[in-house]
Amino acid sequence: MLSAMAVSNAKPIHRPYKLSDGRGLYLMVMPNGARYWRFYYTFLKKQKTLSVGVYPDVSLALARERREELRRILASGEDPSSRRKADAAQARLLETGTFDQLADEYVARLKARGRAEKTVTKNIWILEYARPALGNQLVRDISTPEVLEILRKIEARGHHETAIRLRGTLSTIFRYAIATGRANKDPASELRGALLTPQVKHRPAITDPAKVGPLLRAIDGYDGDGAVRIALQLSAHLFVRPGELRLAQWEEFDPDSCIWLIPASRTKMRRLHKVPLSRQVLGLLEKLEGMTGGGQLLFPSPRSDKRAISDNTLNAALRRMGFKQDEMTAHGFRAMAATLLNECGKWHPDAIERQLGHIEGNDVRRAYVRGEHWGERVQMMQYWSDRLDQLRSTEAGVRRRFSQVSASEPAAPSRDGVDESISPDWRQE
């Protein structure tokens, strides 16, 4: 074993030489006088050497401590060299894990997954609430009180829903940081229940049959852009999400099969959504084709046929017709259809949910309920268009049976207009 004096007095010669301390540790003395600690060991029958430090920054005593630590790693069956490389990589990763960097990666992943542009934009917007305070901090150093302070400031301005959404988004980023080795805790998860829960406000919608007729007649009499008028009419008949209709393309429609195929990339649930087209809808599309059929989009912007109308166009048209913001919105056509279709009792609730593009929320039930109720949905969408025609023409909006709505059509093959060969009586299930 070496002594501190022997190490201090080691003189350089014309070539490098070693001074051994035993158990794999030795001092390498270089011709220029530099002295380096090295650890020599064998792993899987291969001889290897690791740097332990530079003398005098690393004393003999410290070099021996490091040697024993390396021997413990070796005794555990692990290669000390591999452990050191992994620790160095982890350290580099931790130092690159600032909140801004993780937030940018999160947004990039949203885009890579094909999330809707509106979804990406909303996430970019909501993250701006946290970037000024957290941006340059390492995610592993962010504490729960720091996150709570940011959320409390948002709450103080009355934006309770925004605070809740930001907490959820931050939690997602922190969990991603944990998964990638740049953090070991999620400080946002500890704030569940710490924020004020806003009262749920449903989107404004007209669901009273007596008021649906006046709405439809007002749309028919809309004196603005003709394509916008048809967009509102189609919203009532198809009750798809406004963004799905606004960005619709002509190539997605098959008039022969009476189907509109909305690609998964444009649906909220990221699943292909099929919409049956009624006779009335086909008629509206024929009118619209004469207006915008020469381009790709059904509803191009007045400024450029390469872009669709804005997401506020339909709401602005409703305001122009006298329907207030708390009375009816473009999204409200979905609630209107869902309410009246469920109330009439003719259609299986699952068929209505599928047509709305919803996914079963219960994981267990979703595993067993995989039917699309397509045959029933085809009949339901024709019934709904006929029902709208009835409500439009009936001042009081009095309900009548499906068979009385469209006298020109042959009688339905079974009760209530539902073909029993396609859909069993769901009320007896």
TrEMBL record:
Start and end residues of each Core-binding (CB) domain: 97-178
Organism: Sphingobium scionense
Tagged with keyword DNA-binding: yes
Family matches, as CDD domains: INT_P4_C
Descriptive protein name: Integrase
Keyword annotations: DNA integration, DNA recombination, DNA-binding
GO biological process, any: DNA integration
InterPro entries documented for this protein: CB, DNA_brk_join_enz, Integrase-like_cat_sf, Integrase_catalytic, Integrase_DNA-bd_sf, Integrase_DNA_bind_dom, Integrase_recombinase_N, Phage_int_M
Region (Disordered), start-end ranges: 399-429
Family named by the database record: Belongs to the 'phage' integrase family.
Keyword DNA-binding recorded: yes
Domain Tyr recombinase: 202-385
Example GO molecular function: DNA binding
